[in-house]
Each structure stands twice: as structure tokens, then as C-alpha cells.
Amino acid sequence: MAVINNGPRKGGEAGTYARLKNRKEIEGIYQLHRNVRTTDKENAPADFIANDEEACVGNFIKLSVDPNAKSYTVTIPAKQISRTYRVR
Length: 88
Description:
Layout: E1 2-4, H1 14-21, E2 29-33, E3 49-51, E4 62-65, E5 71-76, E6 81-86
């Protein structure tokens, strides 16, 4: 799992996303903002982007580690999306 900490016009470049996407061990790529300078194919899936619009409202991505440290959960509260990953 990877989180791209970017703004709508800064960071999260197409090349960075492409390199992360090509790594088989990365199960999910999240972005704080949709990069408005690139195409949809060069951004994470819409469900994995906290702020879809350039004028963002400050939605965040939350990471929670299970007490047994065998899994962690990534949540975008504004979208009511949550996914759990197992630690390898």
C-alpha cells in the first residue's frame, strides 16, 4: 500500500504513479488529491483519492494499525471507504 501526499497541482506526478502501479507487491495506491494536471489513468482510482476537486475541502486519509500488528486499515472517512491490508 502506498499513500501519495500531494496537492492538486503539486506532487503525485504521472511517472511516480506509474512506478508505484508497476510494483506487484503494492496492493493499493491512495492519493490525498487528484492531480488535475494528469489524466484519470495517471491517478489512483477515484475511490482511493480523498479530494477529487481542485478546490478541496480538506478530506484526509487515515491509517490505523490493528493492536496485534498483523494488519492495518486505510480509511477515507469522507467517502466512507475502508480497506484492510495484512502485514507481510
